[in-house]
């Protein structure tokens, strides 16, 4: 099971030379670079230079303390996951490591190296997701820095930015923009056409009622020829049939790379150049806020979705399962989970290449979303493992759902580069019973998955 396409590096600190050698060889055979230390190094310098995604450290090291190492790492980078290892049966020491912020605790001798791999790989993935979120946040700040209003801009623009920066709803931004702009410009109507594919969505404030001439002016100016980017377009009076005629000015609401919509002001009297300049800057502030909303939603999506398959990532699917357990506990409803693993996935990478392996994972995620029910929640648990949460489902029905998905995969041709690849999956189903926590429920499914593998693969075990 070799994970490719993701650069990972870990530190291992332990005084057992043989174990260091075995772990280093094992992890590097699975695509994770392992840097080993028999004694604690200069952690600040090493972490800064080599940037590990996780650290494994023994609780008991001669002339050092695993807890001191844990605490030092927490001071250097509080998000860096530290996995403690111990061969001692002292439960208090074990609990102390978790109280001090350890990501997980591994008992020596290890029950299986696969378990060690999953814990370390998941920790590194989680840390990577945190780092990517930090990077995206820095990018937002950088963009906003370039787009900040000039210190000489009018005070009302600053007040506008402060108010509309508090919301994440574009309609709320437009509605409050109207209320603010009324304090600084004289107009009868503020209208905005938001760009939403082929649909035309125009918001008009205030409601113009039966004024057909004004509605015609708004529609013509916003739906007709759109203004050039960042340019104010002034319109002449419309109408000479005795009804009120309207002047207007329109401007696009856009950032450097995205047009969000077009805004217009309307009244009987003409607009002057000063008003046009104010309106232009005003719409620039709206665009900045809408871009902030877009970037926030992108970050939110990245933080809960797996980058390769697009389904939920490990951290989010586990949190969601915790919520479902609480709901099942509260209402007494049935709940099951299914843990799936691709059979002999390594052979795909070895035979067809790692891009083919990525394509298989992506297609499997699509099949999973399409084959399971709308109420089911799916995520990538790690590597080639996928977890499905099955609400309102007892064990027998959970088995039926999982078996139907297994049959779907068995019949599917995974096509990549002209090659038709046949795959199968094994799965384990776990049924929630009162008193279980998320770890116990997943362990039941994982044990059943292990049994499915041991009994010949391409099967579901309940």
Q: What do you see in this structure?
A:
The chain has 462 residues and is α/β, with parallel strands linked by helices. The strands form 5 sheets. A 5-stranded parallel beta sheet has the order 2-1-3-6-7, with helices on both faces. It has a 5-stranded antiparallel beta sheet with strand order 9-8-12-11-10, with helices on both faces. It has helices at residues 17-29, 43-50, 66-76, 91-99, 113-147, 155-164, 170-181, 212-223, 273-304, 314-331, 345-352, 354-371, 395-411, 438-454, and strands spanning 9-13, 33-37, 54-58, 60-61, 64-65, 82-86, 104-107, 189-196, 199-205, 233-238, 246-254, 259-267, 335-342, 377-382, 385-391, 413-416, 419-422, 425-431, 460-461. The two termini are 24 Å apart. The chain has 3 domains: 9-124, Response regulator (Rossmann fold, 3-Layer(aba) Sandwich), CATH 3.40.50; 148-300, 2-Layer Sandwich (Beta-Lactamase); 314-461, Alpha-Beta Plaits (2-Layer Sandwich). Helices cover 48% and strands 23% of the residues. Helix 7 (170-181) packs antiparallel against helix 9 (273-304) and helix 11 (345-352) packs across helix 12.
């Amino acid at each position: 099971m070799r994970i490719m396409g993701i650069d990972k590096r870990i530190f291992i600190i332990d005084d057992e030379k043989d174990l260091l050698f075995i772990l280093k060889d094992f992890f590097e055979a699975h695509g994770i670079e392992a840097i080993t230390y028999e004694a604690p190094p200069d952690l600040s310098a090493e972490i800064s230079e080599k940037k590990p995604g996780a650290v494994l450290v023994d609780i008991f090291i001669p002339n050092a303390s695993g807890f001191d190492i844990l605490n030092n790492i927490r001071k250097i980078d509080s998000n860096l996951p530290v996995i403690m290892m111990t061969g001692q049966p002292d439960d208090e020491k074990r609990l102390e490591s978790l109280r001090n912020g350890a990501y997980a605790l591994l008992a020596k001798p290890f029950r299986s190296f696969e378990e060690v791999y999953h814990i370390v790989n998941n920790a590194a993935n989680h840390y990577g997701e945190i780092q990517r979120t930090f990077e995206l946040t820095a990018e937002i700040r950088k963009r906003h820095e370039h787009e900040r209003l000039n210190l000489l801009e009018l005070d009302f623009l600053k007040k506008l930015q402060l108010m509309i920066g508090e919301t994440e709803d574009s309609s709320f931004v437009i509605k409050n923009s109207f209320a603010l702009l009324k304090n600084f410009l004289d107009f009868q109507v503020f209208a905005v056409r938001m760009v939403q594919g082929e649909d035309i969505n125009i918001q008009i404030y205030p409601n113009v009622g039966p004024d057909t001439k004004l509605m015609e002016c708004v529609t013509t100016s916003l739906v007709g020829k759109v203004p050039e980017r960042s340019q104010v377009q002034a319109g002449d009076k419309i109408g000479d049939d005795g009804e009120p005629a309207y002047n207007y000015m329109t401007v696009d609401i856009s950032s450097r790379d995205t047009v969000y919509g077009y805004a217009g002001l309307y009244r009987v009297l003409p607009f002057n150049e000063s008003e046009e300049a104010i309106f232009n800057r005003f719409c620039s502030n709206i665009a900045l806020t809408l871009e902030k909303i877009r970037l926030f939603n992108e970050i939110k999506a990245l933080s809960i979705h797996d980058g390769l398959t697009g389904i939920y990532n490990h951290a989010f699917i586990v949190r969601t399962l915790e919520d479902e357990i609480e709901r099942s506990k509260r209402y007494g409803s049935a709940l099951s989970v299914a843990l799936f693993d691709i059979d002999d996935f390594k052979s795909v990478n070895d035979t067809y290449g790692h891009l083919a392996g990525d394509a298989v994972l992506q297609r499997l995620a699509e099949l999973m979303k399409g084959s399971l029910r709308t109420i089911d929640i799916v995520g990538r648990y790690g590597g080639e493992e996928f977890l499905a949460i099955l609400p309102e489902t007892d064990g027998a029905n959970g088995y039926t759902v999982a078996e139907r998905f297994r049959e779907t995969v068995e019949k599917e041709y995974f096509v990549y580069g002209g090659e038709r690849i046949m795959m199968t999956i094994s799965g384990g189903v776990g049924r929630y019973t009162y008193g279980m926590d998320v770890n116990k429920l997943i362990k039941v499914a994982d044990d059943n998955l292990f049994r499915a593998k041991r009994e010949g693969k391409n099967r579901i075990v309940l």
